[in-house]
Design brief:
Layout: H1 2-26, E1 31-37, E2 54-60, H2 79-82, E3 91-97, H3 103-108, H4 112-129, E4 133-137, H5 159-174, E5 179-184, H6 199-203, E6 208-211, H7 230-243, E7 250-255, E8 257-262, H8 265-270, E9 293-297, H9 307-316, E10 318-320, E11 325-330, E12 335-339, H10 342-356, E13 360-364, H11 374-386
Parallel strand pairs: 1-2, 1-13, 2-3, 3-4, 4-5, 5-6, 6-7, 7-13
Antiparallel strand pairs: 8-9, 8-12, 10-11, 11-12
Helix pairs in contact: 4-5, 7-10, 10-11
Length: 397
């Protein structure tokens, strides 16, 4: 009697286990961090922000934390002003640094004494502002930052070992309850400080990393590619995991911005638009911008001389199913356009978030998507799907 019923019982148990496994795969907590920037300090109605778990106010300069006498923490807004604009569960972080603002980090990381001073001042700032933690935007420790032509990477090699030591000092000063996150490069060529030796040490100090899987085409490139492409994003995520980061502690980056690049006219007319040569976009001696590329957010006015070409990009652009990215090459202006549409954003959830079991997402930045917030809506729909919530967009994902 028992033996004849055992297969049925076993089958019922297996079905129950499979059901709970499916639920665990779809219904799981996911982070969603939004940068709120001084350039575009606006946000939609609070009912559109329910998925946002963290907001990072960008930025405070790292240099102010190297002054032993400093007691002022200048920022474009205050934590008290920001909290009511977001759901009660949203944690408010202070972003420190940003693209090009790196000298303060280098000074801070120099030795034990400077690291301690920096960290203790950061802790004072967090207490004074009432923030829930910090986001460290030392984006290119070890080199390849904005000044890479003026200061060679060899002069910054020491930063590779100093970077995790600075994070360690910050954790010691802030304690275990405060949040520490860090924005990190999306291009493997820029991951100089993120090696198999350093990443495990870094991950012990941070709650999560914000992997900048955007700006993956920039003026240092010589051929066209997707600046937020799926294939390049997978490579970025896999590089951090291979170096020792748990996927659940990685946030995938989204850019609410548009990028364009000037290309070679004749060559691109004869080749595939993806991978065709660009014109020279930065000074080979100084690294200065030569004006052959640019970017703007959805909140910005489109530059007058680009309006016609951008309109064609919106209406005639296509999605690259192979490498994963929306693009348009304008044969009239020889311009390469690369950006995420709402549909392109939604495709990243099964192709990246679900495939690699990542812990969340982040975007630069919330106000950059104003006034329509169409890209934020796509992000919300993708998060709802992965959380197992009901959504009208499920079939489209």
């Amino acid at each position: 009697m028992i033996l004849t019923k055992f297969p049925l019982l076993l089958g019922a148990v297996m079905l129950a286990m499979m059901g709970s496994s499916v639920m665990a795969a779809t219904s799981r907590p996911l982070r969603c961090l939004m940068y709120l920037t001084g350039q575009h300090p606006v946000a939609p109605q609070i009912d559109q922000l329910d998925h946002i778990t963290h907001v990072a106010l960008a930025f405070m300069s790292p240099s102010i934390f190297n002054d032993p006498l400093n007691q002022e923490w200048p920022l474009f807004t205050t934590v008290d002003d920001v909290r009511p604009r977001f759901p009660k569960h949203t944690k408010v972080l202070i972003g420190i640094g940003g693209w090009g603002d790196t000298i303060g980090f280098s000074v801070a990381a120099l030795n034990d004494e400077t690291r301690t001073l920096f960290a203790e001042n950061v802790a004072k700032m967090v207490e004074a502002t009432g923030a829930d933690g910090i986001d460290i935007d030392w984006e290119y420790p070890g080199g390849n930052g904005e000044d890479y032509k003026k200061i060679p990477n060899s002069d910054k090699q020491w930063e590779i070992t100093a970077y995790p030591l600075l994070l360690q000092a910050l954790r010691a000063a802030l304690g275990p309850e405060k949040i520490i996150s860090a924005a990190v490069p999306g291009l493997e060529r820029d991951m100089l400080a993120f090696t198999r030796e350093t990443v495990p040490r870094i991950m012990r100090q941070v709650d999560f990393l914000n992997v900048m899987t955007y700006d993956m085409m920039n003026r240092r490139d010589t051929v066209t590619k997707h600046h937020t492409g799926v294939e390049l994003s997978l490579k970025a995520v896999d590089a951090y995991v291979a170096a020792g980061a748990a996927p659940q502690k990685l946030n995938l980056g989204f850019a609410f911005t548009v990028k364009y690049f000037k290309t070679e006219q004749d060559a691109c007319a004869q080749l595939s638009p993806v991978g065709c040569p660009t014109v020279e976009m930065e000074d080979p001696i100084t690294g200065a911008d030569l004006g052959s590329s640019g970017a703007f957010s959805w909140h910005d006015d489109v530059p007058k001389h680009l309006r016609g070409s951008f309109e064609r990009a919106l209406t005639q652009g296509v999605y690259d199913d192979e490498q994963g990215g929306y693009y348009y090459w304008d044969p009239t202006e020889a311009l390469w356009w690369t950006f995420d549409t709402p549909d392109a954003i939604k495709q990243k959830f099964p192709k990246l978030l679900e495939k690699r079991r990542l812990g969340g997402v982040f975007a630069w930045g919330l106000g950059e998507d104003a006034p329509d917030y169409e890209h934020l809506a796509a992000l919300n729909q993708g998060l709802a799907m992965l959380k197992g919530e009901d959504t009208d967009e499920r079939d489209e994902l």
